[in-house]
Amino acid sequence: MPTDPRIDAYIDARADFAQSILAWLRQRVHAACPEVEEAIKWSMPAFLYRGRPLANMAAFKGHATFGFWDRQALATGMEGEAMGQYGRIERLSDLPPAEVVEDQVRAAMARIDSGAKPARAARTPKPEAVVPPALATALAGDAAAAATFHAFPPSCRRDYCEWIAEAKRADTRDRRVADAVAWLREGKRRHWKHESC
Protein backbone atom coordinates (compact mmCIF):
# COMPACT_ATOMS: atom_id res chain seq x y z
CA MET A 1 0.00 0.00 0.00
CA PRO A 2 1.53 3.34 -1.02
CA THR A 3 1.89 5.60 2.00
CA ASP A 4 3.01 9.17 2.54
CA PRO A 5 5.92 9.48 5.00
CA ARG A 6 4.43 12.77 6.22
CA ILE A 7 1.45 10.84 7.55
CA ASP A 8 3.81 8.40 9.28
CA ALA A 9 5.48 11.41 10.94
CA TYR A 10 2.10 12.92 11.84
CA ILE A 11 0.95 9.70 13.53
CA ASP A 12 4.30 9.19 15.31
CA ALA A 13 4.12 12.71 16.76
CA ARG A 14 0.71 12.14 18.39
CA ALA A 15 -0.20 10.82 21.84
CA ASP A 16 -0.16 7.04 22.30
CA PHE A 17 -3.96 6.75 22.39
CA ALA A 18 -4.22 8.62 19.06
CA GLN A 19 -1.48 6.66 17.30
CA SER A 20 -3.43 3.41 17.50
CA ILE A 21 -6.66 5.09 16.37
CA LEU A 22 -5.06 6.86 13.40
CA ALA A 23 -3.14 3.76 12.31
CA TRP A 24 -6.33 1.66 12.47
CA LEU A 25 -8.32 4.20 10.46
CA ARG A 26 -5.55 4.41 7.88
CA GLN A 27 -5.60 0.61 7.51
CA ARG A 28 -9.39 0.65 7.02
CA VAL A 29 -9.15 3.24 4.26
CA HIS A 30 -6.40 1.30 2.46
CA ALA A 31 -8.27 -2.00 2.88
CA ALA A 32 -11.42 -0.58 1.29
CA CYS A 33 -9.68 1.54 -1.34
CA PRO A 34 -6.34 0.07 -2.50
CA GLU A 35 -5.84 2.91 -4.98
CA VAL A 36 -6.17 5.63 -2.33
CA GLU A 37 -3.57 8.42 -2.33
CA GLU A 38 -2.33 9.94 0.88
CA ALA A 39 -1.57 13.61 1.40
CA ILE A 40 -1.43 16.32 4.01
CA LYS A 41 -4.26 18.80 3.50
CA TRP A 42 -5.19 21.54 5.92
CA SER A 43 -2.32 20.35 8.16
CA MET A 44 -3.84 16.91 8.68
CA PRO A 45 -3.69 13.50 6.99
CA ALA A 46 -6.01 13.30 4.00
CA PHE A 47 -7.02 10.51 1.66
CA LEU A 48 -7.69 11.17 -2.01
CA TYR A 49 -9.46 8.97 -4.52
CA ARG A 50 -9.00 9.70 -8.22
CA GLY A 51 -7.62 13.09 -7.30
CA ARG A 52 -10.66 14.10 -5.23
CA PRO A 53 -10.85 14.36 -1.44
CA LEU A 54 -12.24 11.20 0.13
CA ALA A 55 -11.63 11.54 3.87
CA ASN A 56 -9.34 13.00 6.50
CA MET A 57 -8.31 12.33 10.06
CA ALA A 58 -6.69 14.29 12.85
CA ALA A 59 -5.59 13.99 16.44
CA PHE A 60 -5.88 16.54 19.19
CA LYS A 61 -4.90 16.65 22.84
CA GLY A 62 -7.69 14.42 24.09
CA HIS A 63 -9.35 12.91 21.02
CA ALA A 64 -9.01 11.97 17.36
CA THR A 65 -11.41 12.54 14.48
CA PHE A 66 -12.19 10.97 11.14
CA GLY A 67 -14.48 12.32 8.48
CA PHE A 68 -15.56 11.96 4.90
CA TRP A 69 -15.40 14.89 2.51
CA ASP A 70 -19.08 14.48 1.64
CA ARG A 71 -20.35 14.95 5.19
CA GLN A 72 -24.07 15.17 4.52
CA ALA A 73 -24.32 12.13 2.25
CA LEU A 74 -22.28 9.94 4.57
CA ALA A 75 -23.70 10.98 7.93
CA THR A 76 -23.40 8.50 10.79
CA GLY A 77 -25.48 10.23 13.43
CA MET A 78 -22.38 10.65 15.61
CA GLU A 79 -21.49 14.09 14.19
CA GLY A 80 -21.65 17.18 16.26
CA GLU A 81 -19.30 16.81 19.19
CA ALA A 82 -16.20 17.05 16.99
CA MET A 83 -15.39 17.40 13.32
CA GLY A 84 -15.89 14.31 11.22
CA GLN A 85 -18.47 11.54 11.15
CA TYR A 86 -17.48 9.74 14.35
CA GLY A 87 -17.41 12.58 16.85
CA ARG A 88 -14.72 12.52 19.54
CA ILE A 89 -12.72 9.31 19.23
CA GLU A 90 -10.84 8.65 22.47
CA ARG A 91 -10.26 4.91 22.10
CA LEU A 92 -10.59 2.27 19.41
CA SER A 93 -13.83 1.03 20.98
CA ASP A 94 -15.44 4.39 20.07
CA LEU A 95 -15.26 3.37 16.41
CA PRO A 96 -17.67 1.13 14.50
CA PRO A 97 -16.45 -2.32 13.42
CA ALA A 98 -13.90 -2.49 10.58
CA GLU A 99 -16.48 -3.72 8.05
CA VAL A 100 -18.73 -0.73 8.74
CA VAL A 101 -15.92 1.79 8.27
CA GLU A 102 -14.75 0.02 5.10
CA ASP A 103 -18.32 -0.01 3.72
CA GLN A 104 -18.52 3.74 4.34
CA VAL A 105 -15.20 4.26 2.55
CA ARG A 106 -16.58 2.30 -0.42
CA ALA A 107 -19.75 4.42 -0.32
CA ALA A 108 -17.61 7.57 -0.41
CA MET A 109 -15.71 6.14 -3.39
CA ALA A 110 -18.99 5.35 -5.16
CA ARG A 111 -20.13 8.96 -4.71
CA ILE A 112 -16.91 10.17 -6.30
CA ASP A 113 -17.27 7.66 -9.14
CA SER A 114 -20.83 8.87 -9.76
CA GLY A 115 -19.63 12.45 -10.10
CA ALA A 116 -21.78 13.60 -7.18
CA LYS A 117 -20.55 16.75 -5.50
CA PRO A 118 -20.90 17.35 -1.77
CA ALA A 119 -23.98 19.38 -0.94
CA ARG A 120 -23.04 22.68 0.61
CA ALA A 121 -25.41 24.99 2.41
CA ALA A 122 -26.50 27.87 0.23
CA ARG A 123 -25.16 31.20 1.38
CA THR A 124 -27.73 33.80 2.11
CA PRO A 125 -26.69 37.14 0.67
CA LYS A 126 -25.84 39.85 3.15
CA PRO A 127 -28.28 42.72 3.26
CA GLU A 128 -27.36 45.97 1.56
CA ALA A 129 -25.12 48.05 3.80
CA VAL A 130 -26.60 51.01 5.62
CA VAL A 131 -24.83 54.11 4.33
CA PRO A 132 -23.61 56.19 7.28
CA PRO A 133 -25.18 59.68 7.29
CA ALA A 134 -21.80 61.42 6.94
CA LEU A 135 -20.98 59.38 3.82
CA ALA A 136 -24.48 59.88 2.38
CA THR A 137 -24.11 63.66 2.79
CA ALA A 138 -20.66 63.66 1.18
CA LEU A 139 -21.86 61.54 -1.75
CA ALA A 140 -24.85 63.82 -2.29
CA GLY A 141 -22.39 66.66 -2.86
CA ASP A 142 -20.07 64.77 -5.25
CA ALA A 143 -21.72 63.25 -8.31
CA ALA A 144 -18.56 61.46 -9.55
CA ALA A 145 -17.92 59.77 -6.20
CA ALA A 146 -21.61 58.86 -5.86
CA ALA A 147 -21.69 57.34 -9.35
CA THR A 148 -18.66 55.17 -8.56
CA PHE A 149 -20.07 54.17 -5.17
CA HIS A 150 -23.43 53.11 -6.62
CA ALA A 151 -21.78 51.25 -9.52
CA PHE A 152 -19.73 49.09 -7.13
CA PRO A 153 -21.01 45.65 -6.15
CA PRO A 154 -22.64 45.41 -2.70
CA SER A 155 -19.49 44.01 -1.05
CA CYS A 156 -17.43 47.04 -2.11
CA ARG A 157 -20.09 49.46 -0.89
CA ARG A 158 -20.22 47.52 2.39
CA ASP A 159 -16.43 47.88 2.80
CA TYR A 160 -16.71 51.67 2.67
CA CYS A 161 -19.82 51.84 4.87
CA GLU A 162 -18.44 49.57 7.59
CA TRP A 163 -15.07 51.34 7.60
CA ILE A 164 -16.70 54.70 8.15
CA ALA A 165 -19.34 53.43 10.61
CA GLU A 166 -16.77 51.76 12.86
CA ALA A 167 -14.93 55.07 13.48
CA LYS A 168 -15.27 55.91 17.17
CA ARG A 169 -14.38 59.58 16.99
CA ALA A 170 -15.95 62.25 14.80
CA ASP A 171 -12.59 63.45 13.48
CA THR A 172 -11.67 59.89 12.46
CA ARG A 173 -15.04 59.48 10.75
CA ASP A 174 -14.64 62.80 8.91
CA ARG A 175 -11.13 61.88 7.75
CA ARG A 176 -12.38 58.54 6.48
CA VAL A 177 -15.28 60.16 4.65
CA ALA A 178 -12.87 62.58 2.96
CA ASP A 179 -10.55 59.70 1.97
CA ALA A 180 -13.50 57.64 0.73
CA VAL A 181 -14.83 60.44 -1.47
CA ALA A 182 -11.37 61.10 -2.93
CA TRP A 183 -10.82 57.40 -3.67
CA LEU A 184 -14.30 56.98 -5.10
CA ARG A 185 -13.76 59.97 -7.38
CA GLU A 186 -10.74 58.05 -8.74
CA GLY A 187 -12.79 54.84 -9.10
CA LYS A 188 -10.93 53.05 -6.29
CA ARG A 189 -12.29 50.37 -4.03
CA ARG A 190 -11.78 50.65 -0.29
CA HIS A 191 -8.81 48.23 -0.28
CA TRP A 192 -7.30 49.53 -3.52
CA LYS A 193 -3.78 49.59 -2.03
CA HIS A 194 -3.89 45.80 -1.66
CA GLU A 195 -5.25 44.95 -5.10
CA SER A 196 -2.86 43.54 -7.65
CA CYS A 197 -2.46 45.59 -10.82
UniProtKB/TrEMBL annotation:
InterPro entries: YdhG-like
Domain YdhG-like, first and last residues per copy: 19-109
Pfam annotation, one family: OmdA
Superkingdom, natural source: Bacteria
Protein name: YdeI/OmpD-associated family protein
Organism of provenance: Sphingomonas donggukensis
